[in-house]
């Protein structure tokens, strides 16, 4: 069945996951500052020398697919920052990172930090819960900057 172009555009506007490989701290800061209020940005901070990061990074495409296929109507942008790159080291202090991998969700003028076992499923569910206003926030720590 072939869908009309206008319907495809509507579908794409409702469920959008934008993925980017490594971005710099400067790009991230600029992006977060200028992001539309209707968007949420999920950022994973990692290091290429961290074994937990190496285990987590292959989950990112699955996470993106889960967010894209969810009933969540808010736009989610998924970014990745390698904190080992010298230009990205300020992210550690700016976002109060105590270790990597770390996952932060920027939305509605707030920042929430994921804690717990990182898998595409758990992070996707956590993201959907936060964006839907769920009161189940046991695995989220709000950090004000």
TrEMBL record:
Gene3D superfamilies xref list: Glutaredoxin
Tell me which Pfam families the record gives: Thioredoxin (PF00085)
Q: Which PROSITE patterns match?
A: THIOREDOXIN_2
Q: Which UniProt keywords apply?
A: Signal
Question: Which ranges carry the Thioredoxin domain?
Answer: 1-132
Report the leader peptide range: 1-19
Question: What name does the UniProt record give this protein?
Answer: Thioredoxin
The species this protein belongs to is Carpediemonas membranifera
């Amino acid at each position: 069945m072939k869908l009309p172009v206008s319907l495809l555009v509507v579908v794409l506007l409702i469920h959008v996951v934008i993925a980017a490989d490594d971005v710099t701290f400067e790009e991230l800061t600029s992006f977060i500052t200028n992001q539309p209020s209707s968007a949420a940005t999920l950022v994973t901070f990692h290091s290429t020398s961290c074994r937990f990061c190496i285990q987590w990074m292959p989950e990112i495409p699955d996470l993106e697919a889960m967010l894209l296929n969810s009933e969540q109507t808010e736009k989610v942008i998924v970014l990745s920052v390698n904190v080992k790159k010298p230009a990205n080291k300020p992210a550690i202090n700016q976002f109060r990172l105590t270790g990597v991998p770390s996952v932060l969700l920027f939305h509605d003028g707030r920042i929430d930090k994921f804690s717990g076992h990182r898998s595409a499923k758990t992070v996707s569910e956590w993201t959907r819960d936060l964006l839907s206003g769920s009161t189940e926030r046991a695995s989220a720590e709000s950090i004000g900057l």
